[in-house]
Design brief:
This protein is mostly helical. It has one domain (2-155): Four Helix Bundle (Hemerythrin (Met), subunit A) (Up-down Bundle), CATH 1.20.120. Helices cover 93% and strands 0% of the residues. The mean pLDDT is 91.
Length: 156
């Protein structure tokens, strides 16, 4: 009973942190565009606020990965789960890498470019953030679908 409760606690925490990551990322690309349009001190203030969102996204994506692995282990490892869950484990690692090595550095580059006044570098960084969040949200949606594959198969 305690393993069952532990597994579902991890699943609930996984869902909460994944939803937080998704929600924080929804406006990130738009905010980067607004920062470039506004410029100046207002743009720098928006960039700093966006930087806090990116920092929170870093935390939530890592926690999502940790809680998913904890639920996976508490639920019985590879022997219990089918191929859809195995694919999902790979994709959550890719999502974490996207956040840490595309979105976060893109945002950092955007803030640096704002400080230096290099418009071309700022536009390049904005595109990196937009592509990173777009790919991340696509991975997230695929992951969401994979979580229900076994349940849909059982219903048929």
């Amino acid at each position: 009973m305690t393993v069952y409760l532990l597994k579902w606690t991890f699943v609930l925490l996984h869902i909460i942190t994944a939803a937080a990551w998704f929600g924080l990322g929804l406006r990130l690309a738009g905010r980067a565009r607004t920062i470039l349009d506004v410029g100046g001190e207002r743009g720098a203030a928006l960039a700093e606020d966006g930087g806090r969102s990116v920092w929170l996204m870093n935390i939530f994506v890592v926690l999502t990965l940790v809680f998913s692995l904890a639920a996976f282990i508490a639920g019985g490892h590879f022997a219990t789960y089918g191929p859809a869950y195995h694919s999902a484990v790979t994709l959550i690692v890719l999502l974490t890498l996207d956040q840490l090595f595309v979105i976060r550095p893109g945002w950092d580059a955007l803030q640096s470019a704002l400080g230096s006044g290099d418009d071309a570098a700022a536009e390049s960084a904005r595109k990196k953030v937009a592509i990173g969040t777009g790919v991340g949200h696509l991975l997230w949606l695929i992951l969401l679908g994979l979580m229900f594959v076994d349940r849909f198969g059982a219903a048929l």
